[in-house]
Amino acid sequence: MKRFVAVVVVLLVLVAALVIGVFFGLGFYLSPQNTLAKTDTIVAISGGETDARTDEAVRLYQDGWAGHIIFSGAALDPNGPSNAEAMASRAKSQGVPAAAISLDEASTNTRENASDVAAIIHRAGYTSIILVTSPYHQRRAYIVFRRVLGSGMTIINHSSYDQNWRRSEWWGTSYSRNLTLSELQKVLYELASGKSQ
Asked: How do residues 71-81 score in pLDDT, each as one tens digit?
């Protein structure tokens, strides 16, 4: 009986450790970060905190990590400029020359971001990118871009700053909890189906 109780206690401790590990590791799973290296281009996709994504792409460009930036995203307002054009305008106002910028102005979701950017990348003959998005979106973006671009493309994950989400404190507010769980659901859907929401 004592041995049975000891086994049960050990199993409970292991389950508790697993649950705690998953809980605290979830934010880090959603937000993979790689060591920076020089690449052919920086890809910044629009979405939440688009200005922060743009500014991080510009910083990477100015620091010499790539000589080119691709901004990706359709217009939120069909009567206004595309997100990509707005991002490019912001980048140019910070000193990035127009010749160093390419635009994908048609994509409306992550899968379209990847497929439309892939066309630009392949035309240019690029073989390596730094992928910039919000930290909670980084894993899903990487999965989709990896699937579309193939295993021969070097993809470096590097998130922008997000004022409302921290991978080490994703549970801190109801907003960040909801965002994390929603994004996890989308990642699992992507992994299970090969499709993106």
From this structure: 999 988 878 89
